[in-house]
Structure formats: structure tokens, C-alpha cells
Protein 1
Amino acid sequence: MNSLNDLVLPSGKMLVGGDWRDALSGETIPVENPANGEIFAQLAAGGAEDIDLAVKAARAAFESPGWSKMRPIDRSRLLEQVALKLEAHAEELALIDSFDNGKPKHLAMMVDVPSAVEVFRYMAGWCTKIYGKTLSVSGDGRQYHAYTLRQPVGVVGQIVPWNYPLPMAAWKVASALAAGCTVVLKPSEVASLSTLRMAELILEAGVPPGVVNVVTGYGETVGEALITHPDIDKIAFTGSTNVGKHILRSSANDLRRVSLELGGKSPTIIMPDADLEKAIPDAAMAIFFNSGQTCFAGSRLLCHESIYDTVIAGINEVAKNLPIGPGQDPATMIGPVVNKKQRDRIQSYIEIGRQEGAEVISPNVPLPEQGYYVRPTILSGVTAESRVFNEEIFGPVLAATKFSTEEEAIKLANSSCYGLGANLYCKDMKTSHRMAAALQAGTVWINTYFVVDAAMPFGGFKESGIGREVGDEGVLMYTESKSVCALLDD
Ligand code: NAD
């Protein structure tokens, strides 16, 4: 399975209340293959009326006994069925994303699809483990029986980006369903196809109609209609910090629940005692994997001055040996970036780095003639004040600088407005854990990187977001806690 002919692409329709339908406007959005610019599919261009229908369907499903009274163990079985379906269609899902997003199919099969499968499997276990507590209230001396209930928050609007389309959608849907919510999901207009295929498989797995609705379209229309719809109880958003701030502001009117997974500028910190055989290839892949389009990419390199030159030369050597090409080629390690807009944006940042005085280091390898490719690039010797050290580039571009002490490394790492992840390479365990505690990041990886697990809450400090996805915190954020207090005395 490696060509478009091997795929039955999603139909260009949206899923509302269990039915596949065109946008009410009848309009569509062309889907482009970033490896050659060809249009190979169409998406329904939804609007506010489509969102309204989807929210009504999600509300009806939330209130229907078929969902709200379903035994937790049966909900668990359904989520496991979804995991099995996704697993059975792993290659197809990876191939769809290789055409839609540009990512190498073999890497999507190693990372994206397992992440989607595992979150459904993990969340299947949570359905039967959501519970409150009994409380020892002192009150006024009379006897009380007090306890908390954990109840689903209701109908959730979920919005996801294009960089890991399948796992981002799966994380959100699996967590919400485990808590007993229903959802209206808006994938990115830039890469919606694997999410639509996942939705088909969710229905096939037996999830009742209306529990999961998918409305495709642009952020300014469909997204805006979703975040402002009066019957949405919570918005769960993954995307850029600017849109996240806009969503938070728009939620202020009715204090609607909001969780935000936003941008990052995560540091890879290499201490003088680090195992460079491991740290160098890891630091390279922490930024170059997925062509740098990873929210927690190690996009800033903070390297001890004593090893800086060795590390930069080593990362460039890794970069030289990363085959660049279309996502269907099993040799490809660097696919095209997602579209022309992103390619131009990344290239303009490389130019900004040059103007800011960085040394631009990039392997002199040829790029495919067609498609939106960017060579893996190091901007060496950047200053802490430079734009390329502070702004999210979202491409295979590493901003590198050196430090001389542990304190300086922490200060540089924490100088960012973001706080999503941090990769730390250090042999000394006392130093590692001291630094892990001091780093302002939602996840700190020590002598490893990119380990993202359904059991490990994921999210950001500062402008990288609010709330945590997956793990126990990820499922509980789709619940409300209610205290119940009953008087036992007459
Ligand atoms: P984006 O913010 O442009 O779009 C994300 C989603 O929001 C899309 O579905 C888009 O259509 C929608 N949207 C846009 N405007 C909207 C509006 N006014 N109202 C409602 N929805 C709207 O981000 P992107 O370019 O798709 O993705 C890249 C960004 O996502 C990067 O900043 C990256 O760091 C971030 N990201 C974060 C995480 C995380 O877990 N923290 C994961 C992946 C990506």
C-alpha cells in the first residue's frame, strides 16, 4: 500500500449525528499534496449552520440513555474496539497522512498511529475508574455523609492542528469519551483526512451516532462558530498560542471551560558530562523529526561551551544523512513541510537568523524539484534576545547557543515565554533532577526525548497552554467535580 490508488479517501463530507453530509453551503476546500502541489481530495467547507447541527446532535447524544446510561464497562469495550479498528487500518491511516501532511509513512506508522491506538486503549481503562471520594466534613457537629461525584462536563468542542492530525484528534476524542462526554471535533483545514477516516472507524466500532461529530472547514468560520456556540460546555484546543489566546478571551463572557495546548520553543540542554553518542543524534532528531513541525520540538540547543563545537558538527553530520523526499518513500526521513505558506515562513526565519548574526549551517544536499522542502538547518551562535531564539519557527531549524554554568543553562531555558518541553542530557543524576525541578516545562525528558505516552499528562507552562492532556489529568479535565452533602441527623 503506497499510492493514492490504494486508498479510498474520505468522501469530502462531514460527520453530523451519524450521517455523512456536505456542507450546507455546498462549498469545498481543495486538499493539496505538499510533495508535488497536486490537488487530490476535497473537504467540505463547513460553516456556522453546520456547527449548529453538529452541536444539536452531540447534545441529543449526550442526553440519550444510550450514551448517558451506558455502563462504564460497555463504554470501555467500545473504546477498545476503536483501538482495534485503528490498529487494523494502521497502514492506510499512515498513508493518508503522508499524502495530506507530507510526513513519512513509515514514521507515521511508528509514531502517529500507535499514539492514536494507545490513547483509545489507555482511555478504555479509565471508563471504569472515574470516581469521587467520601469526605470527612466537620460541619457544625451534626452527622453528615459527604462525597464528591465526577460527572462528564457535557458537549465538548475540540479543535486540533495539522502537524500530528491523527494522534491530536485521537487524544482529544478518547479522553472525552472515557469521561462520558460527546464531541464536535474540528480538524485543521490543512490536514483533515485521517481524522475523517478515524471518525468512520469510530462509527464502525459501534460508538452511537452523534457521540462523535466532525465538522471540517476553516478556523475563522467553523472554528469561530464552535468556540462561540452557546450550547458548548467546554472547548479543548490544540494549536498556536495566538489562536489559544483568542479562544480564552472569547470564553470570558460565559466562563466556558477551556483547555489549551499551544506552541513551544523547547530547549535541548547538553551538559558537559553528557553521553554525546546519544545526545547528538537525539538533539538532531528532536528538531528535525516531522520536519520540525512538532509542538515540543527541541528547537533551541543550549550546549555547554566545552563541547559546543563537537555537538554542532555532530548534529550537522546527522542532518547530512537524513534522506529528504516524499512521504511514501521508505527511505525518507525528512518529508516536505505541510504547505507553501509554512515553507516560506520557515525560510524567512532562516534569513532573519542570518541577519541577526547567526552562522547558518545546513548540509548542501539537493532538494526534490517539486514540493515544499526545507533542508535541516542550524542557526549557530544566536543570542538570547534574537527572534530565532524566541519565536516558534515550526520547521527543521535549530537555534543554538552555549552556556558555561548550570545556572546559566536554566536561566536561558526559562527565558522563553513558552514552557512545553525540555530535553536534558546529563549523566549526573543529582544535577539532572535538580535541573528537572527548576525547568519551567510541562514535560522534562532526561537522556531521552519525544517519549509521549498516553499515561503521562502532557501540556505546557506559561504561554504553552492551560491544562494537561491524556493521563489521569487528561481524562479528569473532561469532568466536573460535584460535592454532595447529606444530613444524617434528624
Ligand atoms: P492554528 O492555531 O493556526 O490552528 C489550529 C486549529 O485552530 C486549526 O484547526 C484551525 O482551523 C483552528 N483555528 C484557527 N483560527 C481559529 C479561530 N479563530 N477560532 C477557532 N479555531 C481556529 O495552528 P496550526 O498552524 O494548525 O498548528 C501549529 C501550532 O499548533 C503550533 O503553534 C504548534 O506548536 C501548536 N501545537 C501544539 C501542540 C501541543 O500539544 N501543545 C500540539 C500540536 C501543535
Protein 2
Amino acid sequence: MQITDKITTIKGIGPKKASALERLKIRTLGDLLFYYPREYQDRRQIQTIKSLKDGDTASIRARIVLLVPGGFRGKRTLQVLVTDDTGELSVVFFKADYLIKQLEKNQEYELYGKVTERAGRLQMVHPEIERKSGLTEQGKILPLYPLTEGISQKDLRKWIKESFSLVKELPELLPEAMRLRNRLCSLSYAIENIHFPEDPQKMREAKFRLVFDEFLELQLGLLSMKERVFGAAEGISFSKTKKMCEFTQTLPFSLTGAQARVLAEVETDMESKRIMNRLIQGDVGSGKTALAAAAAYKAIKSGFQAVMMAPTEILAGQHYETLTSLFSPLGVKVGCLTGSLAAKEKKALLLDIQEKRIDFLVGTHALIQPQVTFKKLGLVITDEQHRFGVRQRSLLQQKGNNPDVLVMTATPIPRTLAVILYADLDISVVDELPPGRKPVITKAVTSSKREDAYTFVREEIAKGRQAYVVAPLIEESTEIEAKSAKQLFEELSGHFPGVRVCLLHGTMKQTEKDHVMELFAKGQADILVSTVVIEVGINVPNASIMVIENAERFGLASLHQLRGRVGRGAEQSYCFLVTEGKTEQSKERIKILCETNDGFLIAEKDLLLRGPGEFFGFRQHGLPELKLADPSKHLSILEIARKEAFFVLETDPDLENEENAELKNRMQMLFEDVEGLSI
Ligand code: ADP
Ligand code: MG
């Protein structure tokens, strides 16, 4: 047997089990060994029946005194009475055909399950039950794995045990010295004890080691990427005499303190020979667009082109308009490239870009296409970075010769984590909103109070305000019980005579979308009914009300982004979250939003509620998945791993030393895709 052998080499795994295992991404014996338990059952303590209480989960050892088969809705059931020397307990099994054949009176068994009280008597319903023998799983700490249909805990435990003969052959990933320095157990010890620990201490040692490995791999990957792209190569030094303030003086407002500070950081980066690779984090409405424009100004006045990528056509279109009006008085040519551009216009635009008749190009993913070539690209900006992956960012970068890079995001992550996770980026934070902004007042509304909310909307509209109404779906669906944008559009159009309602959703033609956005932006429509397409970036300061239907269907970050569409003008703004909030988690989410407008605080809570995997969207970013490691829980391990990663790259940047050979293999496997693209 070998680590790379298919799982079907294990006796008992045929095509059917193999395809179920495929759903868990287990294909080889190695995958099986690295498939970690989600939690454990501690069965070391055998309890006496007398000591059991309602609600306990317990192991007992007892003899069967009575077996009573029965029937329930066509299923065979089995009532069993067991005893140890201290008392009797009744045990119930449903769907018990197989057990009826197996269990025998007067034999001793080991049972594990939850104790419940029924009619004053304690019982166990469907416990795990096994004949007492040396081979039983009692008296141990047992792993509980995430399962899929057709695969049981027992299956996984058995197969993993069988693959254990390979553990000794697992190549040790870490150099000996690194293990000693950090008192890390060996990889084989860790694998054995993450699955079947003899005691909790061994399990913790195993987990520490495996969490360390995951963080080390991630840090090494990110840092070496940065090194490769930004370290060795020389970047552009933009002009020290073309200052950003020439541009910011032309803005209709003066910069906030935070904006000014961040711009100074960006300006220093741009003037230096190092390649700038900076992330600007700032809550919705903190004024990031003006910063991007100022950076572009400096690049353009220094003789280069700049490009800015946005995640949606609507946002790209809006940026195009804003930037055109800011730049045309300054003699800077702005262009816009999106997927829906007609072939003829596209051809002309591509030529203009190539010959540098366009200085500043805005667009969507369409910018990444190979036909897009620049004459002299000096600055690459991505807006709403959380919507893009590492991959897309680096593809755009490759269109220039070591251009400077600025990425902007309104999905803040706690700063300590950001520093570590975005190891390849420097970070600036715009932690101040432009003056005069009033926090948006947010209220949760149950459907019985929905009418009141809409009455309020109508009153505000009568005062000249505008409103967004967001639905989770485009069309009505028979499967999902949620409001659709089309349905809401019809409802509201009938409901509010004299109020101008318009509709926007992702599958509309681009020209229709543009038309609708223009109507709304110019104040020629009062209510914009929409799907989440308006989530990012849309800026209509006169819109002061946001109604979100079926708010429970959106994540915290999305809700915060949506809410960020209002509160952009001088008027008091409101956000209504229409929801029944059925689960605890969704109630908690809604509550957080009602209590705070602070994006950083919301991000922290979101991280706690959702867990890191989903929060960071690792896969989406092309990064290896974290299985055991949780940056919010294991911050101290993360810091150790980060130090070690720096140490490795300082002493052996290309991982050429013998002691780093295994690490090198592993990194190549994990970062194949990501690295290939960023070099
Ligand atoms: P975001 O950071 O969400 O991208 P925007 O760049 O869209 O925010 O800015 C939101 C609004 O605030 C825009 O209307 C912009 O013109 C305005 N704005 C930006 N900076 C300032 C400022 N310093 N003073 C007043 N208004 C500002
Ligand atoms: Mg923005």
C-alpha cells in the first residue's frame, strides 16, 4: 500500500462507496489520513445506570434482560431492557430489523448514547450498541467525522485505522530544527493522534502541529509570491513633482484626515522604486474612489496609463461617469471596457488603449482578456477586491511591466488578521467617514409590520427622497419561499399610485440596466426595486431608504454593503430589514446590524458567526483551504508560523536546502495554480 493508492485498494470500498467518498474529496489513502475529525466522543468513562441523568451522553456496560420486538408505522422496532448491577434502563430502537437478529438476551453489551426522560423513566433512544469484547470501541476517545450519505462513522474509523500502516512512511514536512524550536510533535504522531488520541493532551499536541503546518504553508505561499513578484524586480518610480494634491484640490470637497493619510502612504509608495502592492480598507462610503483617482492622476501625469477593475458593469459604468467628469477638465482621457460593448466599439477602444489615446481605463473582468494590451501601463487598481481572486488581480498586473498595484475593499477584516492573511500586501485603512454623515437608522421588521414600513417609505418619497427595495430572487420560484424582484416591482407599482417605480436585475440587457440606473440617479424614479446587483459601489446620495426583503437570506457582509447604498447624502437615512428571522443565527445577524454601522465591528462578528473558511473565501481566492486552522482562534500559532515562514525565506528563499525539500514539494503542490499565474 502507498499513500497515493486509490481508496478502492481497501477491502470493502467498491465503486459505490468510492463515489460517496469522492463527495468528501477523499480519493487516495493519503486523503483518508488527512481527513480530520470534526469533534470527538469521550467514551473513556463507563457510567453506572444509577448515576445517569436526563440529558447525559454516556457509555454504559449492561446485560440484556428483555427483548420486545414491535411495529411502528410499518417499521420494526425493538424495546430492550438492560441492567448493570446498579439499575435498569430501557432502550428503544427504530428500524431495528438488523438488530433483532443480532442482539441476544443475557449477553453483555456496551452502549453509548443520549439519555432522555420519558414518563418519569430514563431511556436511551438508538444508542450505539456493541457486544462487549476486546475489539469494541468503548473506553476510548472516538473521532467524529463530517459524513456524507452512504458513509458512516464506523466506515471511516475502520478505513482510517487500516491506512495507519502508512503513517510511518509519511515524509516529515518540517526541518528537525524548526520542530525542536517550537516543540512540535512529528507528522506521523500528529496524524495518529488527531484520529485516535489516547487522551486529550495527545489530541491537543496533534492539533497544534497540524494547525501550525496549515498556517506555515499559507504564509510561505503568500510571502514567496510577494517576494517573487515584488521583491527582486524593480518597479516604477513615479514623478516626484506631479503631486496628487494638484488633483485633490479640484475635488468639490476637502479630504478627510484618513483619506489624506492614506494618500500620503500611496504617494510615498508610488515615488519609490519598490513595486507598490497596497490594500486600502475602508468602510462603505469612506471615499475610496477619490483616492484611486488621485493615484491614477499621479501615474498619468508621470506619463503612464492606469486601469481600474470593478466587479459589476453597473459599478464600472458609474466609476466611468464619475471619473470622466473629474478628469476631462484636466485633459485626461477616460475609457470604459465591459463585456457588453459592441464589437465595433470594442475594436476601436482596444486600439485606443494600445496606442495610449486612453489614459485611464475602467472596466469589469473584461479587462483581463488577452486582447487588451496597454502601451505603458503603470498603475493597476481593483475596486471591491473581495470580489476578485488573487488570480484575477495578477492577470491584470501582467499587462504592465511591474506596475504599481492598489486594491480597495469595503469588507474589512480585523487588522491583526489582515496583516497576516494578506501577507503579500501592505495595508492602509480609511477609518473615518466624510463629515456630516448621519448613521443609518436600522430596524428589523416582521412581515406583519411590513405595511408600516412601506407607509413610511411613501411619506419619505413625498418629501423628495428615493428608496431602494432589494429582493433575494429575480423571479418567483416554486422551490424557494422568498420575494422576487419582479413580484415586488408589480406589487409596489400597483400599491403606490403616483410613485415612479423601476426594476433592475442582473439578467437584464446592459442598455436597459444603464437606462434604469440613469433614471434613478437623476431622480426620475422614486423606488428602485433590485436584486443584489446594487450591492457594491452604487452612489445616489439622494436615496435615503433601503428596504431589504427576506433579509435572513443575505450574509452580514452583504447586508452591510447593501445598507451602505444609503446614508450618502445629508438627509437622515433608514434601513428596514424585513425578516421572520427563524434561526438563532439569522436573528443574531439582524440584531448586530440594528446595533451598529461600524463595518469593522460587523466583520469581526461575522467572522465569529460564520467561521474563517467561509469568511475568507479561501478557495475563491485560489488559496489552499484551512482544515483545522482557524485564524480567529489560533492567532498565537499563526504568529509563530509567520515568524518561521519569514525565517525559512530569509535563509533559503528558493527552498533549495535538503532540510526544506519536503516543504518545497508541498508548496509546489498547493500553490501550483496561484504561483503559476503571478510569476
Ligand atoms: P466608497 O469608499 O464606498 O467607495 P465612495 O468613494 O463612493 O465611497 O464615496 C462616497 C461618497 O462620498 C461619494 O459621493 C464621494 O463623492 C463622497 N466623498 C468622498 N470623500 C469625501 C469627502 N472627503 N468629503 C465629502 N464627501 C466625500
Ligand atoms: Mg467604492
